Amino acid sequence: MVVPAAGLGTRFLPATKTVPKELLPVVDTPGIELIAREAALAGASRLAVVTAPRKQGIMAYFDQDELLESTLAARGKTTQLEKVQAVNNLVEAVAVNQDRPLGLGHAIGCAESALDDDEDCFAVLLPDDLVLPFGVLNEMIDVRQRFGGTVLCGFEVPEEEVSNYGVFDLEEPAEGDDPRVRRVRGMVEKPDVADAPSTVVAAGRYLLDRTIFDALRRTEPGKGGEIQVTDAIELLIKEGHPVHVFIHEGGRHDLGNPGGFIRACVDFALNDDSYGPSLRQWLTGRLSADAVSHAVVSGE
Ligand code: G1P
Fold it and tell me: What is the distance between the alpha carbons of residues 15 and 18, in angstroms, rounded to a whole number?
């Protein structure tokens, strides 16, 4: 499986000047570890992490830290030791270098050399995207087993948000078919609202047929002057390659910007035994204080 993690993290500056956004903690666990957990759950043993030279901390996170572990063990800090060790045996992470930020499609293209010769299909997980609960990749693998080709993950957004995403043009499901699995007629990267073919957009999970590498080599820079994987997929569709979408109906958090990241932290913290109860209590008080001050301001 491939995790593109070479981006500059511009939406999260200034923190991302020195800390890769993939290492920012959702409660206490970096986003990259959550992605590694999801990949492991879907059966991955190896993760090709596409990074940039200035983001070496991401790979260091997958290295075992013997001094830290032995110190925690000697001090009897078992809970902390277990947390540190959790990542050790999840997956083997291998680094793939992307020396210039030329887009998501370019980053995926860089991973070709990291695949085994007999891997005719591979998954891409965007670490910005938490798709919850884990398990959507397994659904996508099932879809590929039925239809072959490429399988993407879609979710519904309000119309005014479509311009932030790759947007699908979908066939209607035949009667009796699972309405969550649809054939893709076309795909367009971040269209204007008026031009969007639907309100079903791409989440950051892709099950790509190996032919994508050939399509990426033939893909010109698109939106934002970058090589877009959306455009390479559109090219494959035009050439008759079967592409399906699995429509995810669960939750999703965008960890790539502070607003989405805060929601993810609150969501995870509310479910956490240590932090949940007191956070819930504090939030409730904070929100009712807000309601009171709003009433004062609006004269209600
Ligand atoms: C990327 C893809 C876009 C997809 C999105 C999902 O965009 O290009 O098609 O919908 O991820 O998060 P980005 O968010 O990297 O701009």
Answer: 7
Is the pLDDT at 173 greater than 90? The verdict is: no
Quickly list H helices, the chain: 31-41, 57-62, 66-74, 78-85, 104-110, 136-147, 211-217, 229-238, 258-270, 276-298
Tens digits of residue pLDDT in 190-249:
999 999 999 999 999 999 999 999 999 999 999 999 999 999 999 999 999 999 999 999
Q: Is 181 left (phi over 0), alpha (psi -120 to 50) or beta?
A: beta
The Å distance, Cα 47 to ligand 1 centre, comes to 20
For residues 284 and 191, the answer to whether their CB atoms sit within 8 Å is no
Residues 197/167, Cβ–Cβ less than 8 Å: yes
Identical fold for domains 1-120+256-273 and 134-249, yes or no, is yes
Q: Is 204 in the pocket of ligand 1 (CB under 6 A)?
A: yes
Work out the pLDDT band at 295, boundaries 50, 70, 90: low
Query: Which residue lies with its CA nearest to atom 7 of ligand 1?
Result: 165
Domain residues of the chain, as ranges? Answer: 1-120+256-273, 134-249
Percent over 70 (pLDDT), the chain: 98
Mean per-residue pLDDT, 95-107: 94
CATH architecture of 1-120+256-273: Alpha-Beta Complex (3.90)
Q: Closest residue (by CA) to atom 9 of ligand 1?
A: 166
134-249: CATH topology is: Spore Coat Polysaccharide Biosynthesis Protein SpsA; Chain A (3.90.550)
Length of the chain: 300
pTM: 0.93
Q: Which string of DSSP letters, residue by residue, matches 225-242?
A: GS--HHHHHHHHHHTT--
Task: State the closest ligand 1 atom to the C-alpha of 202, by its place in the atom list counted from 1.
Answer: 10
Q: What was the pLDDT predicted at 299? A: 59
